[in-house]
Each structure stands twice: as C-alpha cells, then as structure tokens.
C-alpha cells in the first residue's frame, strides 16, 4: 500500500509540474513608432522568454529578423512615403501562447506648387499583382509636364503632355519571389512635382516544408519514434537536447527522421525541440517525455528570475530536496556554495552585464551530473545609447559648415551618401561634436543627402542635409 501511495504521489507531482509550464510571453519596447516621410532605418526592442515570429501588414515596411528566441533588437526599414497622406502598418509578434502588436506611422511631405500652377495625379500609389497588368492614372495640370519612367518593368503610354490627361500604366510580370517598388516622378514646366509609387507583389514561391506529426510523446523508459519531412529542396534537422538522438542531419526532398529518446531518470517531465530548416522555412517538432521514477527529487523556487539592472546584485533561491545535490551556474554568477543536501536557501551574486543585449542562462540543480531542477535567470544589458541633437541641417548656397552633436556609449561611424558633404570626424567613440562641410552649389534646384550614423551594436540614426540654390 505504501508503494501505491508513492506512485500516486509521483503522478500527482508530474501533473502539477507539467501544468505549471511558464507561458511564452512577448512584448515590444514601444507600442507605436513614427517614421519620417523620407523613410529610413529604425530599431525596436522586443522582449520574450521563448520562440517568436514577426508578421507585418504592408510592403513598404521591412522588419528583420522575422523570428527568434528570447530578447532581440528588431530593425525596421521604411521606404519613402510619396502618397501625400499619412500611412500606417501593424507589426505583430506571436508565440505559441501570446501575441503583441505595435503600430508604425509614416508622415508625408505635402506637395508645394508655385502660385498659380498645379500638378496632381490620382491615385498616387498603385498595388499590382505579380502577374502585372494595366491601370489608369488621372493627371491634372495647367501647363506642360513630363514623367520620368526609367524603370524597365513599368511603362506609361505617354511621358510628356500639356494639360489634363488620362494615362495608362502597364506593369510587367514579376518573376522574382520578392516584392518590388518603383517611383515615377511627374514634373511640370514651373517645377510642380508629384510621385507615383508602384508596388508589385512577388511571384508565389513554390518552395514548401511540412513535418508530421508536430509532437512526439515518450514514456519514462524512452524509445524511438519518427516524423516525416515533405519538401522540394535540401533540409537540415537538429535538436537542442543531449537526451535526444536523431537518425540524420538532413536530406533532400521527402524523408523520415527517427527520434530516439533516452530513459528519463529524473523526477520531472522534460521537453526538447527538433528544428527542421529548408532555405527560408522552419518547422519545429516538440518531443516530450513523462517523469522518471527516480526516488531522488529536487525543486527550486523561483524557477525564473529577471534582473532589470545591468549592475546585477544579490538574489537567492530555495532548494527543496531529499538527496545530495550540486549546483552549476554560468560564469557571470557567483554562488556561496556549489554542493549541499536536502533543503537549503542559497544566495548568489549576479555580475555586471557589459553587453548591450539581454543575457539568459540557468542555475542547475544536479545529482550525479543529471539535472533535477533549474532556475532560468535573465539580465538586461547596459543601455545602447546613440543619438544626435538634430534631424536636419540646411547648408548655405556658397558652402560652409554646420555642426551636430553625437551622444553615445559606443563606437560609431558617420557616412554621408553624397560627395558634396563631408563629416569631421567621420568616426569616434562616445560623445562628440561633428562638423559637416558642404561644397558650393551652382545648381538651380535644391539638393539633399542623408548622413547615416551607425553604432557599434546595431543602432542607426540619420540626418537629412539640404542645400538650396
């Protein structure tokens, strides 16, 4: 009867531990982001304690990376907004348990026409399917005009005219698997101007990847089971746990992967992830195993600690156990003892995180080298600082110099996109005053260029430089 009670207790504990799985959370550092009309590159922080994927609702905004695990810095690259109206997009981050979203809004630069003249087109932005096609553009103008349609996959039936016109726009088939964008600039005799943006979706990518089943479940004794892979290209497979063995590292086309699981000699259920990758596609097979019957057990409280300061500090864990145990910690944690038995409360010191990214590791409670319990510990990195005190500079016609101030806690490089401006210094570390010099301008129209400042750890800021005749 005592043995029966013991097994009932084991089953209850296993059910409790499985039911208390920490959900995979995800959130953005900001709920909204405003982007300048000329577009550019921006960064957004994402926080998560597991796998996540990114999705967007528009083609004018690219996000990378689109998937990952744990905290990350996302890079947003926006195309210029020539639509003559504010536009917005939603970015969604999803995990198997939760979804977070943020809104990106892009401004626009209103057309400025010389008094008494006008030039407008309707619509100002066109969406086309990958197979191409025709559409009409209504142009209204009170004088002569011309259109710069130098993109080889876009055609206008007329590129010059006088007064109002209804134009036919022809877009060729897109044989690429990625979307593309073109801009057609219309200019009138008095320098009124407007831009038509043409967006075309990419051709359907015939590449596919499917795995079945998506989850394999094993008893405590372990054993073998398999899943199938269906794809039209090469694929690779890997697992994140050493108690799982795979029959292959990959293949070409359809195939089968045999998964062999060792007996579970610990008192808790466990899970592994088998990742199958083929070009730009990933699939995950979850491998779960019930708790073993090892009479030795240990639990640790809490099972997750978040350190919200890069300077670290002192924390503690409480171990509940019926046996001897050892403690294994990462190099950035100092523990007062590395071994003990039965119940204990241990203090440890978290060191300074000199990285600009969050770091995550585990404190492991082991017996004879086998992990019985763990505490996941996560610590934020030091702040990634890179900013400038201006977003625009106006240079005199005769040339000259202007200044901007860089505030940073890292190395940086400043690069203009045009030869008529130079930065002094063009690189540095930490805060600095930067001089921007421009040559004399003999043209009849305003010219502009962008100075991009890249930080050592991925941050990017830009300054728009204008020079008027």
Q: Roughly how much helix do the residues carry, as a percent range? A: under 10%
Strand content: over 45%
Distance between the termini: 97 Å
Low-confidence stretches: 6-12, 14-20
- Report the C-alpha radius of gyration, rounded: 30 Å
**What is the CATH T-level topology of the largest domain?**
Immunoglobulin-like
- In CATH, what is the homologous superfamily of the largest domain? Immunoglobulins
* SSE class: mainly beta
Question: How many beta strands in the DSSP annotation?
Answer: 45
Element layout with pairings:
Blueprint: H1 2-19, E1 26-28, E2 32-35, E3 40-48, E4 51-56, E5 61-64, E6 67-69, E7 72-78, E8 87-94, E9 99-106, E10 119-122, E11 125-128, E12 133-141, E13 144-148, E14 154-156, E15 160-162, E16 165-171, E17 180-188, E18 193-200, E19 209-212, E20 215-218, E21 223-231, E22 234-239, E23 244-246, E24 250-252, E25 255-261, E26 270-278, E27 281-289, E28 298-301, E29 304-307, E30 313-321, E31 324-328, E32 333-335, E33 339-341, E34 344-350, E35 359-367, E36 370-379, E37 386-388, E38 392-395, E39 400-408, E40 411-416, E41 421-424, E42 427-429, E43 432-438, E44 447-455, E45 460-467
Parallel strand pairs: 2-9, 11-18, 20-27, 29-36, 38-45
Antiparallel strand pairs: 1-3, 3-7, 4-6, 4-8, 5-7, 8-9, 10-12, 12-16, 13-15, 13-17, 14-16, 17-18, 19-21, 21-25, 22-24, 22-26, 23-25, 26-27, 28-30, 30-34, 31-33, 31-35, 32-34, 35-36, 37-39, 39-43, 40-42, 40-44, 41-43, 44-45
């Amino acid at each position: 009867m005592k043995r029966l009670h013991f097994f009932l207790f084991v089953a209850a504990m296993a059910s409790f531990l499985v039911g208390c799985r920490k959900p995979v959370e995800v959130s953005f550092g900001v709920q909204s982001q405003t982007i300048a009309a000329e577009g550019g590159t921006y960064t957004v922080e994402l926080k998560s304690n597991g796998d996540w994927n990114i999705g967007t609702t528009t083609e004018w905004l690219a996000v990378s990376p689109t998937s990952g695990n744990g905290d990350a810095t996302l890079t947003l690259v926006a195309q210029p907004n020539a639509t003559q109206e504010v536009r917005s997009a939603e970015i969604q981050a999803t995990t198997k348990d939760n979804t977070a979203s943020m809104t990106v809004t892009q401004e626009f630069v209103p057309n400025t026409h010389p008094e008494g003249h006008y030039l407008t087109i309707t619509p100002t932005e066109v969406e086309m399917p990958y197979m191409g096609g025709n559409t009409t553009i209504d142009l209204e103008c009170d004088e002569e005009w011309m259109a710069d349609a130098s993109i080889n996959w876009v055609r206008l039936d007329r590129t010059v005219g006088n007064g109002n016109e209804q134009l036919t726009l022809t877009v060729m088939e897109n044989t690429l698997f990625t979307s593309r964008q073109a801009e057609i600039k219309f200019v009138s005799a008095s320098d009124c101007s407007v831009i038509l943006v043409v967006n075309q979706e990419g051709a359907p990518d015939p590449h596919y990847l499917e795995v079945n089943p998506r989850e394999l479940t094993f008893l405590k004794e372990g054993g073998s089971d398999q899943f199938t892979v269906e794809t039209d290209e090469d694929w690779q497979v890997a697992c994140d746990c050493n108690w799982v063995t795979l029959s292959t590292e990959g293949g070409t086309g359809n195939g089968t992967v045999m998964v062999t699981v060792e007996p579970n000699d610990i008192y808790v259920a466990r899970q592994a992830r088998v990742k199958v990758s083929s070009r730009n596609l990933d699939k995950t097979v979850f491998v779960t195993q019930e708790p073993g019957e090892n009479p030795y057990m240990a639990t640790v409280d809490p099972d997750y600690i978040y350190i919200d300061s890069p300077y670290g500090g002192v924390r503690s864990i409480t171990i509940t156990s019926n046996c001897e145990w050892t403690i294994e910690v990462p190099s950035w944690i100092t523990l007062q003892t590395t071994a003990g038995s039965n119940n204990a409360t241990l203090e440890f010191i978290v060191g300074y995180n000199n990285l600009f990214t969050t770091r995550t590791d585990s404190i492991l409670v082991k017996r004879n080298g086998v992990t019985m319990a763990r505490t996941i510990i996560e610590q934020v990195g030091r702040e990634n600082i890179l900013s400038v005190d201006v977003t625009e500079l106006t240079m005199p016609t005769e040339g000259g110099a202007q200044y901007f101030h860089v505030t940073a806690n890292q190395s940086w490089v400043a690069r203009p996109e045009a030869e008529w401006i130079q930065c002094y210094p063009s690189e540095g570390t930490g805060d600095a005053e930067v001089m921007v010099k421009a040559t004399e301008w003999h043209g009849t129209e305003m010219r502009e260029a962008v100075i991009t400042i890249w930080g050592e750890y991925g941050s990017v800021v830009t300054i728009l430089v204008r020079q008027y005749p």
